[in-house]
């Protein structure tokens, strides 16, 4: 295979100055700002090592089936989790290296109504990626290209290593932080900055020894919108509490914030402001069921599942 691939941004590429919207795990897709009009961008899907001889899979918490191929993650799984979460079951099979699985989202979406292969777009304006996650195994964030380019570089996609963490952790990565792996000796070199100009997908990849590893992705944002000022979340602030009593949500330790309650269809069914004088949200109009609550303010930003009985 000829490794000297020309990266032509004009081919199946969408270029725009629209920004990536912050995703809090409260909708089934991310608003990337780069959709090509087909409305297929930003949807989460799974991938694994099966085509290469592995037998790995992802099991979602709301599904009895294992996600063994490239499958879109259903909205109920995301809303119930308040993000993308599940178990990465790594099984080596006939692989000669560590098995892997991952979840990813397309930046532009499908190439056309008849061609489901991912199109590529210029995501330079994002500046990079900001992710909040936790994982039993050290994952990596990887940049995906078109299928032809991915094959040409033999999986040597620019990536950034993320630390293993059993608590919610935020990592802010500029495009320059993404680099091809050190083992790659091919002729096609591409930096993270160059990769951002022809980006097809962003992948959260777990590659490790055989075993089962739990993971959760809670937030995705553009580097340019994510600063150290908003790193604190409810899970890092023991003084902040949210209590559900019947049909009333009570907030403690939240000075100023907006609270939104979503149903499983992603619709806002209750919305209110929390401040020093108002610290409750009335849910009396809601039916019994599962809902997601998103609380956002200067010093707090989180999504949580609630169950009304």
Question: Any key phrases for this structure?
Answer:
309 residues; mainly beta; Jelly Rolls; Immunoglobulin-like; 2 domains; six-stranded antiparallel sheet; five-stranded antiparallel sheet
Distance between the termini: 60 Å
SS-based structural class?
A: mainly beta
Task: Count the beta strands.
Answer: 20
Secondary-structure element series: EEEEHEEEEEHEEHEEEEEEEEE
Strand content: 35-45%
Percent helix range: under 10%
Give me the oligomer status.
single chain
- How large is the count of helical segments? 3
Q: What's the structural domain tally?
A: 2
Fold and architecture overview:
6% of the residues lie in helices and 38% in strands. It has 309 residues and is mostly beta strands. It folds into two domains: 13-228, Jelly Rolls (Sandwich), CATH 2.60.120; 234-308, Immunoglobulin-like, CATH 2.60.40. The model is unreliable at 1-17, 64-70 and 228-238 (pLDDT under 50).
Quick rundown:
With 309 residues, the protein is mainly beta. It is 6% helix and 38% strand. It has a six-stranded antiparallel beta sheet with strand order 4-3-5-13-8-11. Strands 2-6-12-9-10 form a five-stranded antiparallel beta sheet.
